[in-house]
Structures are given as C-alpha cells and as structure tokens.
Fold this sequence. Notes:
- The chain has a five-stranded parallel β-sheet. Strands 2-1-3 form a three-stranded parallel β-sheet, with helices on both faces.
- The protein is globular.
- It folds into two domains: about 25-120, Rossmann fold, CATH 3.40.50; about 135-255, NAD(P)-binding Rossmann-like Domain (Rossmann fold, 3-Layer(aba) Sandwich), CATH 3.40.50.720.
- Helices cover about 40% and strands about 15% of the residues.
- Helix 6 packs across helix 7 (about 170-175).
- It is α/β, with parallel strands linked by helices.
- It contains ten helices and ten strands.
- Strand 8 (about 230) and strand 9 form a beta hairpin.
- The longest helix is centred in the first third of the chain and has 21 residues, at about 5-25.
- The site of nicotinamide-adenine-dinucleotide (NAD) has 25 residues, from helix 10.
Amino acid sequence: MIIDINTIIEEKKMNLKKKIEKLNNSGIYPKLAVIVASDDEASKIYIKNKKKICDELGILQEEYSFISSTSEDEIISLIKNLNEDSTVHGILVQLPLFKHLNKFKILDSICYKKDVDAFSRNCSSDIYLGIENILPCTPKGIISILDNLNVAYEGANAVVIGRSNIVGKPIALALLNRNCTVTICHRKTKDLEKYTKEADILIVSAGSPHLVKANMVKEGATIIDVGINRENGNIIGDVDTKEVSKKADVTPVPGGVGKMTVISLIENLVYITEKETK
Ligand code: NAD
C-alpha cells in the first residue's frame, strides 16, 4: 500500500491553525527567520515550499540572502542579532552553504531556544541523550508518519539506509529512543539486502534512485522513502514504489516525507514559540 500522507498533513494543519490562532489572540505572532547563503537549486524549491506553508498558516517570515563573497562573521553577526530579537522565534540556516563557510560554526551560533531545525551541536546532543524537545524536521516528519500508522516500535528491527547528520543519524537515534533494534547501513555496507530483508521499519535516505527493490523488503514492512532524485524530468524516490507497495507499506515520492518535513518545521516553530512565550 502507498501510505496516505495528505490526511496526516490536513490533520496537522488544522491543529497548527488552532495553536497559531491562540497565540495570535494573546498578541504573539510566530516568526521564522530564514538565512540563505548558497545558490543551490534544490534549496530554492525547499525555501519556496516553506514560504508557501508559512503564508497558508499565517506564520511571519523574514528571508536574509547572502552573496558568495559573504564571510562567516557577517552571517554569525546577523544570527547574533536575531538571537536577541524577541519578535523572532525560530532561526533556520538553509543548507548547503557556500563551500567556504563552516556550517558547524554558523549553526552553533543559533541560540538553543531558536534552533528550529535542531542542527546545532546542543540540539544534536539532546537526541543522543534521548531528550527530544525538538527533532530535526525530516526525522520528526518520519516519526509522525510512523506514529500515525501505529507502528509497533518496541523490539522492531529498524534499518536506516544513509548516515547523514540531517536524516540518517538522527532518525536512527529517534528509533533507538523508541526501543527499536536499529541497524544503520551506508555506502560501505556489504550485502545491503541481508539487512533490508529483515527490516520491520525501513528508512531510506540514500539519494540513489530506486535503490530498494521489492525483492529486498520484508512482506508487511513499513518503508519510509526520503530520497529525492531527479530523473528524466521526474522526481523519484530511493524505493521502487510501484513494485514495493505490492508487499509493504511505503511513502510516496513526491508528496511524502518532503511534505511532512515542511509541516514539521512549522510544528517546531509553534512549539518553540509556545514554550518561550508561556
Ligand atoms: P546524503 O546525500 O548526505 O548521503 C547519502 C547517504 O546514503 C550516505 O550516508 C551514503 O553512505 C548512503 N548511501 C548512498 N548510496 C547508498 C547505497 N547504494 N547503499 C547504501 N547506502 C548508500 O544523505 P541525505 O542528506 O540524508 O539525503 C539523502 C536523500 O534524501 C537525498 O536524495 C536528499 O535529496 C533526500 N532528502 C530529502 C528530504 C525530504 O524532506 N524529503 C530531506 C533531506 C534529504
């Protein structure tokens, strides 16, 4: 079966609208600051999608774009000002950055309370310690999908393909925090199939078109396809959805985890705003 993401999204939007209205009624207007320092084409699409959902839900946003000659200090100085600005509740640095910029230094300058993407060292170590105040947006979206499906976490074999800091590692930790038995696979894994065939929950974030085929998955498994690949003008995932959906539940691409990631960002922003303005 192909997992229905739209129903989850609509429910979340309704919930968020109520929360935002309540904040507005108290004179609080959640605001997101987005910092862009790259000319990455995919980032432009993500930013557009984020802007669209902010507009739909009545979230204020400010975008700060930097040119390629920008220094780290310039960006960090802006972030310091935004950290102090009480009208800004969340700060997001769109990745990737221009190559000469040190992303760790920049991300770590966002104050803990406003780190809406949870990519700073402090937020990352929270997840490691099993504290999940804020999860990075894509792993948060994945957990929302699994929760919505009432997936039984305890003791489940969860396999994660990909070990990126933004998806693979945090989702592996989030699943471990939910008592799954977690295996992380990556490019150097020998015999990938051996692991995927045993997975009750399979998260695929490899960026490799149709890497996971029907013969590699367990009957009845829950599969989350994070991959976004452009092929012949189409966007396809890391899973051969058409064949795999005949024996397991799988999220669609496009319109799956990508949509959940954007809604999770707003959930994080609203959570931060509520917490800071209580
Ligand atoms: P990445 O691109 O930084 O790294 C890919 C990871 O997959 C690496 O750890 C690599 O070892 C592993 N990998 C690649 N090919 C493999 C193979 N054949 N077998 C086993 N492991 C393999 O990872 P990322 O940033 O998580 O991005 C992965 C994909 O997810 C990309 O297509 C990206 O566009 C997409 N993405 C989507 C969203 C979303 O919201 N839907 C968010 C982030 C990333």
